[in-house]
Amino acid sequence: MAGGSTRAVVAALVANLIIAVAKFVAAGVTGSSAMLSEGIHSVADSGNQALLLFGNRRAQRPADRTHPFGYGPELYFWSLIVAMILFGLGGGFSIYEGIAHLSHPEVPGDPVWIYSVLGIAFVVEAYALKVAMAQLKAGGGSGGVVKRLRDSTDPRVFVPIAEDAAALLGVIVAFLGVFFARALDLPMLDGISSIIIGLILAFVALFLASETRTLLVGEAVGPVLESRIRAVCAADPAVEELVRLRGIHLGPDELLLALDVRFRSGDGTPPVAEAIDRLEAEIRKVDSRVQRLLVEPDAGTPAAPPAGGGSAPPT
User: Taking a C-beta distance cutoff of 8 angstroms, is the pair 102, 191 a contact?
Assistant: First the structure.
């Protein structure tokens, strides 16, 4: 899944780099505030995709003494930085540029440049969004796009989707601003469209910040996975009761689970150690992302002495 998810980030990065150059050229030729805001938007998005790739690379580092559960959450940290950059550089500067343009409004120049660049940008961004949406669909889940986005735990998927959707909406707003500024001879509409683009970026940034914050502080596993794990425990002959289940995301491809299990006792009941090994194997079959699994026998589990007498070693 990691390779497929990264594909969405790479597609968005290439698209934004190409479009940024074209937008800045168009902004320089025509003097359009909306086009300048769109260029800044594309530069911010390009930097964001690069940060996601950087964070993904660092998150793949193996566990060591200082980070015994690995570096998976680092991807969530860089995703939060992406949201902050999008809010500040993308949204903030676009709003500032729009307000500055309102002070000295000018009708955008040659519209051929603007419309050509916006048309190319729309096609390229639409393709990048299509790639990201395919990755979201491949990740499973149910419900509409918004629900799947909110349920997704992979910033390599939901960040490009949010940014590409904002980019497409920004292209439409920029086109409308330039078109009506020229058609109605109201140059202030160009500046207003720049402000609207900034507000769109700010809204998307707040959405991404909210999503990555919950993952960064340890979002619980979903109810579907929880019900499957409970079914595995209920089907095991050595398990009397799953007392408590706790799980968090250590990264898009890694889960940490902690189970408090009350085991049965009596003649013919498999040893607790064997039952734990069996539970670990079955749970990993349910979801391969379960890389860290801690099974703690509940206090109600009788401790059977090992052969030869003595006390059972702690598990």
Answer: yes
HEC letters along 90-123: HHHHHHHHHHHHHHCCCCCCCHHHHHHHHHHHHH
Residue type, 232: V
State the amino acid at position 231 in one-letter form: A
Q: Is 249:219 a contact under the CB 8 Å cutoff? A: yes
Nearest in space to 121 (alpha carbons), one of 192, 197, 196:
197
Handedness of CA 37, 40, 45, 46 (dihedral sign): positive
Report the alpha-carbon distance of residue 246 to residue 43 in Å, rounded.
41
Dihedral angle, C-alpha 8, 10, 12, 18, nearest 10 °: -160
Which of 55-69, 186-200, 296-310 shows the lowest per-residue confidence on average (mean pLDDT)?
296-310
Beta strands in 174-298 (DSSP E): 239-251, 254-263, 290-297
Per 3-state DSSP, the chain is made up of helix, strand and coil in percentages (nearest 5) of: 65, 10, 25
pLDDT tens figures, 192-218: 998 998 899 899 999 999 989 888 888
Among the listed residues 135, 132, 138, the one whose alpha carbon sits nearest the alpha carbon of residue 161 = 132
* Interatomic CA distance for residues 115 and 178, integer angstroms: 9
> How many Å apart are CA 9 and CA 135, to the nearest integer?
10
Structure tokens at 143: 């419900």
Query: What does the alpha-carbon distance between residue 278 and residue 283 come to, in Å, rounded to a whole number?
Result: 9
Kindly state the helix (H) or strand (E) to which residue 174 belongs, with its residue range: helix 155-183
Give the pLDDT confidence of 146-159 residue by residue, as tens digits.
Answer: 888 888 888 888 88
> The whole model's pTM is what?
0.78
Calpha distance 179→66 (Å, rounded): 57
Query: Cα(42)–Cα(121) distance, rounded to whole angstroms?
Result: 10
Which residues touch 72 (CB under 8 Å, ≥6 apart)?
59, 249, 250, 251, 252, 253, 254
